[in-house]
Design a protein that fits this description.
By secondary structure, the chain is of the alpha+beta class. It folds into two domains: 33-146, K homology (KH) domain (GMP Synthetase, Chain A, domain 3), CATH 3.30.300.20; 150-213, R3H-like domain (Ribosomal Protein S8, Chain: A, domain 1, 2-Layer Sandwich), CATH 3.30.1370. It has helices spanning 63-85, 118-135, 148-170, 180-191, and strands spanning 2-4, 10-12, 90-96, 99-105, 141-145, 173-177, 196-201, 208-213. The protein has a three-stranded mixed sheet with strand order 3-4-5.
């Protein structure tokens, strides 16, 4: 999520705090992904995205235990989603830096990305919500498909550098609407360039970055 301080500066809290942009609906398919429950696994009960459970974590469970449960539940959820959508893909999950990273590979898996990653962001939100209900604790979960997120990061960095160069010559440059995660990537890239600054304008889902020469 993003927040604006009194100086008008946007701050993005957490890489995974991504709100699906407009048009980020899941693609039509034979099954409703939102109705797919997590299978009973390490945490002992199946809980779907629409079911409310006690959100208090078990005090006897360590963080390592909860991450292991989240890893297994994330994999179960995505594999169930692929099966329901009849998409041929291979999912894997690993724990790094106290977070769960889920990756999907396969030629057909591209359908999970959508325009500018909107479908991917929507599925990630659904996945994280379901997993957190399952383990009854806040868990960071990142979903990627075919390495899309890293490619998108580099494309945004390059775009930021190009627009910064133009801003030095032509004045303020306005980029296309982006979600909070993508705006942070642009702000970080611009922050490395001397002579320009960046800020965000507009309301979600049309909020965008503006790059301008330093005054």
């Amino acid at each position: 999520m993003s927040a604006i301080d009194d100086a008008g500066t946007e701050h993005v809290i957490g890489e995974e705090e991504v709100t699906p942009a407009a048009g980020g609906a899941l693609p039509e398919n034979g099954g409703d992904p939102a109705s797919i429950p997590l299978s009973a696994s390490a945490s002992g009960e199946a809980v779907g995205p629409g079911e409310a459970v006690d959100s208090e974590p078990d005090e006897e469970e360590s963080e390592e235990d909860r991450l292991a449960m989240a890893q297994e539940d994330s994999l179960d959820f995505i594999e169930g989603l692929l099966e329901a959508m009849d998409v041929d893909g291979e999912a894997s999950a690993e724990i790094r830096d106290r977070r769960v990273y889920v990756s999907v590979e396969g030629q057909e898996a591209a359908i999970l990305i959508g325009h500018h990653g909107q479908t991917l962001d929507a599925i990630q939100e659904l996945l994280r919500s379901a997993v957190q209900r399952q383990v009854r604790a806040r868990v960071w979960v990142t979903l990627d498909v075919q390495g899309y997120r890293e490619r998108r990061k580099e494309a945004l960095r390059e775009r930021a550098r190009e627009m910064a160069a133009r801003a030095l010559d032509e004045g303020e440059m306005e980029l296309e609407p982006m979600n909070a995660f993508e705006r942070k990537i642009v702000h970080d890239a611009v922050g490395e360039i001397t002579g320009v600054t960046s800020f965000s304008e507009g309301e979600e889902p049309y909020r965008r970055v503006v790059i301008a020469p330093d005054e």
